Amino acid sequence: MAAVTIRNLPDETHRALKLRAARNDRSTEAEIRSILEEAVRPRVHLGTALRAVGRGLGGVTLKLVRSRTPVDVPDLR
């Protein structure tokens, strides 16, 4: 696995990374790995993935009609 050295990191940035890592209950090094991983491999949200599938199939047309009927809320007591 590769190793990276970051030089000239401002003290304020390092403190902010340490605080963020503590909030996420992980080491500063693990937090930096997480930040870098997300920066280069952003997660695709479900809606975006479904849109891509629809486009790959030539598009999908949905007729959506919003109901104005009130919803009965069940009593869960």
Structural summary, described in words:
- With 77 residues, this protein is mainly α.
- It has a domain at 11-56: Arc Repressor Mutant (Orthogonal Bundle).
- It is 48% helix and 0% strand.
- The protein starts with 10 loop residues before the first helix and ends in a 21-residue tail after the last helix.
- The mean pLDDT is 91.
Q: In terms of structural class, how would the helical and strand content be classed?
A: mainly alpha
Distinct helical segment count: 3
Major beta sheet, specifics?
none
Average the pLDDT over all residues and give the rounded result: 91
Strand residues, percent: under 5%
CATH architectural label of the domain at 11-56? Orthogonal Bundle
Spans of 5+ residues with little confidence (pLDDT < 50)?
A: none
**Given this structure, which CATH class of the domain at 11-56 is correct?**
Mainly Alpha
Quick one: overall form?
Answer: elongated
Write the layout of secondary structure elements.
Elements: H1 11-23, H2 28-40, H3 46-56
Helix pairs in contact: 1-2
Give a brief description.
With 77 residues, the protein is mainly alpha-helical. It has a domain of 46 residues: Orthogonal Bundle (Arc Repressor Mutant). The chain contains 3 helices and no strands.
Protein traits:
single chain, 77 residues, mainly alpha, Arc Repressor Mutant, 0% strand, elongated
